[in-house]
Design a protein that fits this description.
This protein is α/β, with parallel strands linked by helices. It folds into 2 domains: about 130 residues, Response regulator (Rossmann fold); about 210 residues, Rossmann fold. The protein is built from 12 helices and 14 strands.
Length: about 375
Amino acid sequence: MKTRVLIVDDSAVVRRLLTDLLSADPDIEVVGSAANAALALAKIKQAPPDVVTLDVEMPDVSGLELLVEIRKIAPRLPVIMFSALTQRAAETTLDALARGATDYVTKPLGAASREEAAEHVRAQLIPKIKALGPRAPAGAMALMAQRSAAIDVRRTYGPIEVLAIGTSTGGPNALAALFREIPADLQVPVVIVQHMPPLFTQLLGERLSNDCPLTFSEAKHGELLRPGHAYIAPGDHHMRVVRSGGSVSVAIDQAAHENSCRPAVDVLFRSVATVYEGRSLAVILTGMGQDGLKGCELIHAQGGQIIVQDEATSVVWGMPGFVARAGLAHKVLPLPEIAPEIVRRIMSAPTKLTGSSKSGERHHVR
């Protein structure tokens, strides 16, 4: 089944570029385009598409205003915002995500040629359209993964010293919903990878700080991790944690992309497994692809704990689904139940070891 797409953009050049590129994919059908809000709403009412691409900056009615109108007539229609990589556009895009946009893609405004612009669209937009298109009901494997999370009430776990989170599509709203329920006195630092470009990650941190009890910031190289503070990997940079003596700090670099991502969840989670061994709690939220799977394998092997978001509350059950189907998740939970589970697992355990983890002299809780 092809994914039916409506393109909404005031630029004839952009509409033509997107139409040509999307139509060339055998799994996508462009069912129409619209240069303004009135025409877009009329086409959605007449023949609802599977996915809408929506320009952030429209001349008559803004993309944000049009999104609100779309949500009135099609509350669950996936809408991908097409945004410039500017401060203003980033702010508007985050506003759009908060008001119900499903995802976003940055425009290839700095492309040196039409082919470079086309490659950007093929790499960034097309996979998201396919991921958000018509989905079959959860298959046997997905249901099995959710029903048989690796929960063993007899197992004991060590203290948790860090909370590591990975997410992508649908992540900004999921993070906001999650951290509204996490208390400011959380006893451990939080490190987060959200697949986002530069500017977006900085603004996301500012918004989460204003909306949630914890303090959020875009991580800086060499910054020491502090309990009750959340560090977001900067756009286009990997983030790792490194230990020096008795302290742990952040390392930022621009090493090669992993899973076509930078920042990548796997990069962060590998470092968490190395530095904290089994004293970590990892959470995989909604997102497309499988970034985080390899990192979760290492965290699981070290004795760390893993929670993933369930399919029903995920925008895309890619990242959490891969971890769940691999049998690595200790719990597979709806988004509203994840914050209480995080708090229970962190607050119910001591946060310091009485001996070296290498010597095995550590406290455990049931």
